[in-house]
Amino acid sequence: MNAMHLAVEFKTHQALPGLIPRPRMQSAETGDLIVILNQGIAHAVDLRWRTKYAFWLANDGGLYNLHVTLREFCFELDAAAELMAARVDALGGVPQCRAAAVARNSRLPSHPPTRRGSFNLGDALIRSHHSAARHLILATTRAMRQNDRVTASIFRSFSAVQQQQARFLKTYLPEQLKTET
Question: Which residues of 158-179 are buried (b: 16+ CB within 10 A; e: fewer)?
Fold first, then answer.
């Protein structure tokens, strides 16, 4: 199937091969899953912003390897957000990825990058990753209770990524990034 054929099918609103068709009506369980997925999207986007902030702080000379690793973390967070957004769309909902929706839906601990005083950026970033992983573990349980194995699998894999990133940051984040003034 070529790209032109796919474009014609998309324009005529026919189901594309390999995609899950949208349900016509949302049940209360599907609506609950959409809310949980949108909260997961908010966490992924919020973590990406925070990781990108650390990424730019690590742009200095001797921290090139950390800079590259944080860039890879951002790519993984983008992929997770896109995967959850696709699942929301497949369930018949609307993915909420805009800044206002992310600010409203994210439940991560805040660590605003202010110039007054100092805060521990590394610990705040690690806490954010752990908090997202905890949320995703609870979301996995809720998805399994509703017999949605696809959503549970998405949550489980994203939780594993968050735990892996938090362990990496806890081990390798240098002191230069841990304290900012």
Answer: bbebbbebbebbeeebeeebbe
